[in-house]
Design a protein that fits this description.
single chain; about 300 residues; alpha/beta; 5-stranded parallel beta sheet; 5-stranded mixed beta sheet
Length: about 300
């Protein structure tokens, strides 16, 4: 048993054992995204108790379990990943029907959001069996919590989770053009070998505020907020800035306060002039920020096209 987590396993038994853990149920378990100490006591208890641990990568999960002092033999580990999830789900269903408790973990974070797990849960529910959530670490909510990027207005509150954008340049550019008109916070994910390409593609958003969060919860964690057009220069400022997994947050589009006059002028000008010219003149006439008026006009345009 790992000396550093021995007391945590004891605490997990003391804190979580009193709850009922039905047999024949799937336990969807969130695991740390970097810092092993972020595991929950209930996750440790269920991982100890589980008859089978279904996982995205058996080798990775075996190492994780051993770090916590939890011993599972190879027959108790079942690979369920994006390439075999539909087929492997039936294996899980069979084990549940035999009365086993099955825990499912992804390589890191909460399964079923960006990582595999959604099809597995759907198959379990379709078979009339239970899927129970064990909340915990998530790179998405971790980044959102320190970015100040979620608006609380009734119209533009909340956020939109998009995940990984298309790899092909044309498809990615088309998706970003659609997101330009999304007034809410947008959450993207990106791998280190593609973050430079994503930054270049996001430059078309100009002054729109973007937060990059990399290596979250790890030793070299870094969270930085920049205008979209400045992301490439920031990444190129130091080699280590392109390392690690990224959460990329597009902050909400600032919308001009409806003081009546500025928006009325903007609408009148847009009816007669190209967008950039209308925005420039509206800013000069009303004194409202050009960037705010531009984003407002762009939001209107996207809404009309939609």
């Amino acid at each position: 048993m790992s000396a550093s987590f021995a007391s945590a396993l004891d605490a997990a038994r003391d804190a979580a054992a009193a709850q009922h853990y039905p047999q024949g149920a799937l336990y969807v378990v969130a695991t740390p995204i970097g810092n092993l100490a972020d595991v929950t006591l209930r996750a440790l208890h269920v991982l100890q108790m589980a008859d089978t641990v279904a996982c995205e990568d058996t080798r990775h999960t075996q190492s994780l379990l051993r770090a916590y002092g939890i011993d599972k033999n190879t027959s108790q580990l079942l690979a369920v990943h994006q390439h075999n999830e539909a087929e492997a789900a039936q294996n899980v269903v069979q084990r549940l029907q035999q009365g086993q408790r099955v825990a499912y973990v992804s390589d890191a974070g909460t399964p079923g959001v960006s990582d595999p797990g959604a099809r597995l849960v759907a198959a379990v529910q379709a078979a009339g069996l239970r899927a129970l959530p064990l909340p915990g670490a998530s790179s998405i909510t971790t980044a959102l919590s320190v970015a100040g990027a979620v608006a609380h207005s009734a119209e533009h509150g909340g956020f939109v989770f998009v995940g990984f954008l298309p790899v092909k340049n044309a498809e990615r550019a088309s998706t970003i053009a659609q997101l330009a008109g999304e007034p809410r916070c947008v959450v993207l994910l990106e791998a280190p070998h593609r973050i430079g390409e994503l930054a270049q593609a996001l430059a078309v958003l100009g002054e729109r505020t973007v937060t990059l969060a990399r290596e979250l919860t790890k030793q070299f964690e870094e969270v930085v907020t920049q205008p979209a057009q400045a992301l490439t220069a920031w990444l190129e400022g130091a080699p280590q800035r392109s390392r690690g997994e990224f959460v990329v947050l597009l902050h909400p589009v600032p919308v001009a306060a409806d003081d009546g006059e500025s928006l009325r002028v903007l609408r009148l000008l847009l009816a007669e002039l190209p967008l950039k010219t209308a925005v420039r003149l509206a800013a000069e006439i009303t004194g409202t920020s050009r960037n705010v008026l531009y984003d407002t006009a762009l939001t209107w345009k996207k809404g009309e096209e939609g």
